[in-house]
Amino acid sequence: MKIKLTSIYVDDQDKALRFYTEVLGFVKKADVSQGPFRWLTVASPEEPDGTELQLALNDNPAAKTYQQAMFEQGQPAAMFYTNEVRADYERIKARGANFTTPPTQVTGSTIAVLDDACGNLIQLTELARW
């Protein structure tokens, strides 16, 4: 068994697609519409056939409340691993991302947290090399 897909709620799918591809550097994997429904996913260019991230429109009141509460508490909605958090921080910041936490050493890793401008905080994590 393996994880193939996980979802993140966004307030605007077009804005999210631009952010996750142009700012973070992911690649669009699927973009299918049927009526008001749009199935939109991105993947890592390092693993294009790996786990996909669905950019799901947040039109569910319960999900919207959860998303807002997590954001207000400073809790990331997703965590992405990197081998070079400081380099990714500089690259992503240069592309216009707003970081709420610059690269910071914590137990076992270095993290940075950014606002995806779609209602979520995203954590970048570089595991410590022992």
How are the SSEs ordered, and which strands pair?
Elements: E1 5-10, H1 13-23, E2 27-34, E3 37-43, E4 52-57, H2 61-72, E5 78-81, H3 85-94, E6 98-106, E7 109-115, E8 121-127
Q: Major sheet: order of its strands?
A: 1-4-3-2
Helicity level: 25-40%
Distance between the termini: 29 Å
Q: What do we call the CATH topology? A: 2,3-Dihydroxybiphenyl 1,2-Dioxygenase, domain 1
Element order, helices and strands? EHEEEHEHEEE
Q: How would a textbook summarize the main sheet?
A: 4 strands, mixed
Instruction: Categorize the overall geometry.
Output: globular
CATH superfamily: 2,3-Dihydroxybiphenyl 1,2-Dioxygenase, domain 1
> What low-confidence regions span 5 or more consecutive residues with pLDDT below 50?
none
Query: Which structural class is indicated by helix and strand composition?
Result: alpha/beta
Please report which band the strand proportion falls in: under 5%, 5-15%, 15-25%, 25-35%, 35-45% or over 45%. Answer: 35-45%
Tally of contiguous helical segments:
3
Radius of gyration equals 15 Å
Mean pLDDT: 96
What's the CATH architecture? Roll
Please sum up the structure shown:
By secondary structure, this protein is of the alpha/beta class. The chain contains 3 helices and 8 strands.
Descriptive key words:
130 residues, alpha/beta, 2,3-Dihydroxybiphenyl 1,2-Dioxygenase, domain 1, 4-stranded mixed β-sheet, 3 helices
